[in-house]
Amino acid sequence: MLTIHADSWFDGSELRHRPVTVVIDGPVITAVHDGRVAVPSSATLHVGFLCPGLVESHAHLFLDGHEFDTAKRQAYMEAGYDAFLATGRRNLERLRASGVTLVRDCGDKWGINHALRAETAGSALPVVRSAGVAVRRKGRYGSFFAEEVVDAVTAAACVRTRGDSDDVKIVLTGIIDFAAAAVKGGPQFNLDELNAMTVAAKELGKPTVAHCSGREGIDLAVQAGIGSIEHGFFLDSVLLDRMAAGGTAWTPTWIPVAWVRDHPEACGVGPDGVAGLGRILDQHRANLGEAHRRGVTILAGSDAGSLGVRHGDGLHDDLAAYADAGLPLAAVLASATSAPRRAWGVDGGIIGVGRPADLAAFAASPVAGLSRLRQAVATVRGETVWQPASPYSLAAA
Ligand SMILES: [Zn+2]
């Protein structure tokens, strides 16, 4: 048995500004008591703040976001399977140190995500939810993480081979032209092709995830019943209402675009690009607030591995942006705990009796600032406690 005493906590929907005692037996939470309650014959952990384990909803584990040299990034893409796997292992450790216990990898064409999922299963590292290899239109954007298809028949056939993926990832639109503040090119797939893929995914029982920005692409994604829209730049209130009504979730991935705005020289972006990035982010920020007000499910995801986005830090940077956009603290925390698990049908994300013990602990409450959550003092899975070198140690009660 394991007992956790926390000075304050977040239960998955509400912040509680008072002490709590959480008792864990095997894999499950067996009691939640107001205040500090001594539990005999139990190891005890004392922490400042307790919440469900954090979720990073959009990452590419085989990539390092803190390699800023674009020539080195280019060369790394030839480094090969073993190097990619080693990078992924390090990134999982970084995520854990940031309080993450579940990460959704949104695609790599080498299958590093699947390999990491297999080798870390049952370990104290974050659980990997893997999209495997994504699906894209032949010749269009997505070469480092997607397989090419040419029409509705080959697209559906490709999706049917994704039985070992946790999510089916579809590349629906291209990248963004910063200076023009617009998506480059039209959607990669038409509605018939997209419907063929979502139907095939439904037959497999897999949620769908679409790389998608721009009104044209987002409109198609909503019509085809895509589970979550990744990036979603250039949303508007009409589309947000349709997403809320249809249960389409949104992963905003704020930080990779903000990083380019703040480091234009690193990517050769000129003054026109910087001005465009400012407009794009102003709109994205406004849409974050609107999405919350209109009841859209927001999944916290940073596209960690992208240029400038380090695993772990990226998630916390994205959370800071959501708070800055006006989301209440409880909504920010829900986007990285209960909301993604609910969207994916994964048990957890709630601190309550009978729920899986899948928790993150921190030295202090985020009420004093979200940066308090950047470094975990422990992650807890069942009775297994992982702690970095810190003064927070397990002691027999
Ligand atoms: Zn991505």
Task: Kindly describe this structure.
The protein folds into two domains: 2-52 and 349-396, Urease, subunit C, domain 1; 55-344, Metal-dependent hydrolases (TIM Barrel, Alpha-Beta Barrel), CATH 3.20.20.140. Strands 1, 2, 3, 4, 5, 17, 18, 19 and 20 form a nine-stranded mixed β-sheet that branches. The protein is globular. The protein is built from twelve helices and 20 strands. By secondary structure, it is of the alpha/beta class. α4 (152-160) packs parallel to α5 (191-204). Zinc ion binds next to loops.
What separation lies between the terminal Cα atoms?
A: 11 Å
Number of domains: 2
Let me know the largest β-sheet: 9 strands, mixed
Instruction: Please give the CATH class of the largest domain.
Output: Alpha Beta
Cofactors and ligands present?
Answer: zinc ion
* General shape: globular
Helix tally equals 12
- Structural class given helices, strands, pairing? alpha/beta
* Poorly predicted tracts of residues: 391-397
| The CATH homology group name of the largest domain | Metal-dependent hydrolases
Instruction: Please identify the oligomeric state.
Output: single chain
The helix fraction, in percent, is 25-40%
Count the E strands: 20
The overall average pLDDT, rounded, is 96
How many whole angstroms does the radius of gyration measure? 21 Å
The share of residues in extended strands comes to 15-25%
CATH architecture descriptor text of the largest domain: Alpha-Beta Barrel
What fold name stands as the CATH topology of the largest domain? Answer: TIM Barrel
